[in-house]
Known about the structure:
Elements: E1 2-9, H1 23-30, E2 33-39, H2 46-55, H3 59-62, E3 68-73, E4 76-81, H4 87-95, H5 104-107, E5 114-118, H6 122-126, E6 135-137, E7 143-144, E8 148-149, H7 162-180, E9 184-189, H8 193-196, H9 204-229, E10 233-239, E11 245-251, H10 253-259, E12 271-275, E13 279-284, H11 292-300, E14 305-309, E15 325-331, E16 333-334, E17 345-349, E18 362-363, E19 376-379, E20 388-394, H12 398-406
Parallel strand pairs: 1-9, 1-10, 2-20, 5-6, 5-9, 11-17
Antiparallel strand pairs: 2-19, 3-4, 7-8, 10-19, 11-18, 12-13, 13-15, 14-15, 16-17
Amino acid sequence: MRRAVLVTVDGLRRDMISPELTPHLATLKRRSLFIENYRTVFPSCTRVVSASLATGCFPARHGLQGNSMALLEHGRLVQHDAGHPDFLQHKRRMTGHSLAVPTLAERVKHHGGAIIFSNVSPGAAYAHDPDGHGHVYHRAGSFGPGRLPVAADDHLDVTLDVAGDRRMTERFIDEILPHRRPALGVLWLGEPDHIQHEVALGSSEHQAVLAQADAHVGLVADAVERLREGGDDVLLLVGSDHGHQSVAGVVDIDAELVAAGLKASAESDDVIAASNGTAALIYVHPDRVDAVADLGAFLRGCDWVGELFGPHDLDRVGQAADNGLTFAVSMRASPEPNRFSIPGSSLVAKPAFGKPDRMGCGQHGGLGEFEQSPFMMISGSGFEAGAVLAGDASVVDLAPTILAHLGLDCAGVDGRTLRHG
C-alpha cells in the first residue's frame, strides 16, 4: 500500500539541525533527500503555511492571507485572528468558501483518506481540512467527515508543550499509523515554535525543548521503518513550516498611520494594519482608495519597513488584492545575533487582540533570512538517500509530491512534484 506521512516540527530553522542538537534529525537527513534551499510562503506564519501546504497553492489562490487578516463584511473591514477555532467557518459564511481550492484531505478522501494530528493553533490545524473530508484532531475540538465531532474518548486531549506533543506522537504511531492506516497521516508538532515565542533562541530552555522535538521525530521515523518492513510503500516527509528571528523592536503600525493622518483613529476600520509578526498586511477600505498613493509614499519612507509590496506587485509574494489587501510589509531584518550568538533579528508589528510583545524572543512572518529558512527532508521511493536538492523548492511543492506518490492527479496546484522516480 502506498502511503504518505508528513511530520512538521513547527518553527525549526534548518541551521539548528546538527548531530549535537538534533541527533535524530541529523540521522534522518543522511537517509533522505535534503532540500538545501527550501522556502516557505509569505507571511511565514503557521496558519498560512498550513493552508499552502494542504492545497499546494499560494495565499493568492487559497485565500487565507495571514495569521491575522481582514474580511469585507457588510461594507466594513473587519480584522480577524485566523487562529480562532471558528474563523474558517466564518470565512465561508462571508465569502462563500473557507479555502478557495481543494485540500489534500479532499483529494484523498476516496483513496485511503487523511488523518491530521495537530498541536498548534486551532485555525492552523483546521486549515488542513476545513470542510470535513477527513479527520482532524486538535485539543480545541476533533472532527471526522462532515466536520462531525468525534466521540469523547477519541478526542485529542493534549497540552501545548513537549508533554502534549509526546502524548500526540505516541498515539499517532501506536494507533493511527499501524491500525487506522490512512493514505495520508499528518503529525504537526507544536514545539519548538511554542517555546521559541517565549524564550530567547539558543537559550538552555530552548535547547531542552528542541531535544524533545527531535526525539519525537525519531519515534515517527522508527514507526515508518516498521511499516516499510511490513510491506507498505511509505513516503516520509519531515520538515518545518518556517524559521524564527529574534525580536529587536516593536512597531505600532496603526499608531504610525494615525499620526501621519492616514488612518482615522486606532479603532477605525478605514485602514487596518494586520500584524503577522515580522510582517504586516495593510488593508484599505474601498471608500479610501484615494489614500493609497499617500499611504504607499509614507510606507516607502518608514525605516521600519524592510520590503514593501503594493497593489500592483502583491503577486511577487504570492498574495492578491482581495478583501481590501493593498500593501504587504516585511519588517526590517538584519543578521545581527542575539545574546546566545544566534544570528537573525527583526522588528515586529505590534500584535492585535491583546497579544503580548516579547522582546528578545523568537518571531516570524516576514522575509528575513532565517524565518525563510525552514527545512525539508524526504525519504521513500523516488528519493535518493543522502542526496541534496540544490535548486529552489517551496512549501507548495509538498502537496503535488504527496499526490504523485499516491498516484493521484495534482492538477490545479501552484507547486511541482519533487519526486523523480
